[in-house]
Design goal:
Elements lengths: L1 H13 L5 E4 L6 E7 L9 H14 L9 E4 L3 H13 L3 E6 L4 H9 L3 E5 L5 H12 L2 E2 L2 H8 L8 H8 L10 E5 L4 H13 L4 E7 L4 H7 L31 E5 L1 H15 L5 H19 L4 E7 L13 H6 L5 H11 L10 E4 L7 E4 L3
Parallel strand pairs: 2-10, 3-4, 3-6, 4-5, 7-8, 7-10, 8-9, 9-12
Antiparallel strand pairs: 1-2, 11-12
């Protein structure tokens, strides 16, 4: 175990922090920032989670020499976990839905991982646990352990990094941080850190069109489910995951798939390089919240994340035939976001505003028409 932990620590020391990019817009008094998590060695935000899960498993004596580790993953987490498994010399199995993109499967296999396919995303949990038992290995279980494996108090976690990098900006304490949920671990880390440091920053969680998180937050029902699999890989879940901590989220917004992919395309053009679909979900929600601030006459900064690069989605989100087959038209949302970033009105408004019941009383907004 000592050698494995030392290898992971050395890898972290070799890795620089990710950049915080300021997006050029014509929004006077409102600054938009994006923390670029695509620059990690495995190309996504999930590199942080995978490192934390491996350290958590090693220090709890669950990961042992020669025994495989198993994960239920739609792609990016498995890519990063395969990287760390190969680093410490243990076999890695990713239980993935059959609909996972070919590019992500290739990335998992590139790092030495083995893909184990299942029909439907809802079955990956049970199959991953069963596969770990059959192999005599350890089920990493990102959806349960993401919120506790990461040190949310500091240790250069993503929240501490954001606030540190914002220190010399015109509005150094963000009015809002916007983040989508896959496991819920990142929103838990950010929300807890905001509370620990007593920042006035609020946390907006963006949920894709097909996901249980929004309905669970709205109703206060942790057993809420969604039958349709998320189109946006890496975020959105068929159930409310154990690592999703609703109490640290100030507001949620549900984003249509066409809006996510439209925002993805706009941001890719503005940056001069491709970003992924979950980044589009974040960016659409970021623009929507910025438009609310402008309508209210408020100034300040907003921060979100570039979760991964778009090259993994060349045969899906960036393929017009793929979009046409699914009747996804991004053109209207692209026009809305381009106009807004150039100083115009953000014309897609929520159809209603509802309040959650039970122990959650924060406002909910749903811009799906």
């Amino acid at each position: 175990m000592d050698r494995a932990v030392a290898l992971i620590d050395a890898d972290q020391r070799r890795s620089a922090d990710t950049h915080l990019l300021r997006l050029e817009t014509k929004l006077a008094g409102i600054d938009l920032y994006l923390k670029d998590e695509s620059t990690h060695p495995t190309g996504s935000l999930k590199h942080r989670l995978a490192r934390s899960l491996f350290l958590y498993g090693l220090c709890n004596r669950k990961i042992r020499p020669g025994r495989p580790v198993v994960e239920a993953s739609s792609g990016s987490t498995a890519v990063s976990e395969a990287y760390f498994a190969r680093m410490i010399g243990v076999p890695f199995y990713a239980v993935v839905p059959q609909t996972t993109s070919c590019d992500k499967i290739a990335a998992i296999e590139h790092h030495g991982g083995i893909c184990h396919f299942v029909c439907g995303s809802a079955s990956i949990y049970d199959e991953a646990a069963a596969l770990a038992r059959r192999l005599g290995g350890h089920y990493l279980d990102q959806f349960t352990f993401a919120e506790r494996a990461t040190d949310w108090r500091g240790n250069n976690n993503i929240a501490e990094s954001i606030f540190g990098q914002m220190r010399l900006e015109p509005y150094p304490v963000p009015a809002w941080i916007v983040m989508s949920a896959g496991t819920g671990g990142t929103t838990a880390t950010i929300g807890r850190y905001i509370g620990l440091k007593r920042h006035p920053t609020r946390l907006l969680c963006a949920d894709p069109e097909f996901s249980a998180f929004f309905d669970g937050y709205r109703s206060g029902d942790a057993a809420a489910t969604c039958r349709c699999p998320s189109t946006i890989e890496g975020i959105g879940r068929p159930r409310v995951e154990p690592s999703f901590i609703p109490e640290v989220v100030d507001e949620m917004v549900k984003v249509p798939d066409a809006a996510s992919l439209g925002a993805m395309r706009v941001l890719s053009r503005r940056l001069g390089r491709r970003v992924g679909g979950s980044t589009g979900t974040n960016f659409f929600a970021l623009c929507w919240k910025a438009s609310q601030m402008r309508q209210q006459g408020r100034t300040g900064s907003l921060v979100s994340l570039i979760c991964d690069a778009g090259e993994r989605y060349s045969k899906t989100y960036y393929c017009q035939d793929w979009l046409t087959e699914r009747s996804i038209d991004t053109s209207g949302f692209e026009a809305i976001i381009e106009r807004f970033l150039d100083g115009g009105a953000f014309t897609h408004e929520p159809v209603d505003a509802r309040h959650a019941t039970g122990s959650i009383s924060r406002p909910i907004s749903d811009p799906i028409a």
